[in-house]
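Sequence, structure tokens quoted for completeness.
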Amino acid sequence: MRVALVHEWLTTPAGSESILAELYALYPQAQVFSDPNSDLAASYRELASLAPILAEHQAAGDVHGFVLDKAHPSVDFTANGYALHVALDEIFGHGTDAGYGLIMADGPERFIGAGKGFRVSFSPINEKTAQLGLGPSTRAFSRTESGFPDGA
């Protein structure tokens, strides 16, 4: 089992730092991340912007999170009637060494994804719905833009 312990910053010994220390005692092999400027910290800020949507879908079991690296370059799961294959991103022979993110089912044939360094492919589980494609969104984001203003 791979374990990562993440803390927003480690500056003042207080309650959450004590909990982190206890978790580290349970999982001494875990990596500890605490740099507020790291990619992982940025991902937690992104998760905060998704909080209203995420809480609803996490309770329903519609959220799948993942961490990818060279030793674990892909993961497969099913959601919303589709088989999803998530892998490290690669284009024109150049790829990334690590990726992470989450994908949540947000209604029939609708998904929301957030993260970095991954690509996802969708295959319908039921051959009767074999037509698959990307459609227009109510809100488009570029590769560098992030966030869901006001939880929208």
